[in-house]
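Contributing new records

If you add data, match the layout below exactly. Sequence lines come first and carry their own label; structure lines follow with theirs. Keep one chain per record. Anything else will be rejected by the validation script.
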Amino acid sequence: MTVEQADFSDKAVRTVVRDPQSVDDAIQSRISVRAFLPKPVEPALIKDVLAISSRAPSGTNTQPWRVYVLQGKARDTLVDKVCSAHDELRANPALAASMKEEYDYYPEKWVSPYIDRRRENGWSLYGLLGIGKADKDKMHFQHQRNYRFFDAPVGLMFTMERVMGRGSLMDYGMFLQNIMVVARARGLHSCPQAAWNGFAQIIKPHIGAGPDEILIGGLSLGYADEADKVNTLHTPRVAVENFTRWVE
């Protein structure tokens, strides 16, 4: 350990968080925003968010994350490519066989209570937007909002080397959570998105990711459109008593 590292560690141990309410507010006000303003986000601010977020823990400090930032033309071109593929997939569902995710984000078989929460979440969103079960065109349009980054000016893509193990996915989750919370502390909002994963064969060449990398997911980043009703969706959380057991 260098002198600089020792000084940093000592400072970290001794640091007192003098405003814990602000930390709580950043966490509790993090929501999946699905409508953003066109207001640009300065590259220096994005870099700041990523730098602070990189303090996320990882097993033996492997730091498995790789981040690709898309703005302007690079963002818009990817949106066009994936939206076109999404439309083609709807017209020809057989194409789904060639658009497999590179890892299983969701279970192969859904069971309660997880399927119940998933359905509640989906129909709460569609109900808010006035989309019924028979409104296939509206469903397709709303789903495609994912591939437009919900109009956010910044899109982030995350990859990891294929050689890494499952534990690195846990590390990645902590890194992503940091990004979203740090962004909130700076007035930004975000939406983490696994929806991109099926289009890895389009995304990876576009961003310059190699065959040794797997796509972990994407994230929309920007300033929330506070006037859009979609951002009023409030997803519930299970009470602590329901997921915690005190062992004696």
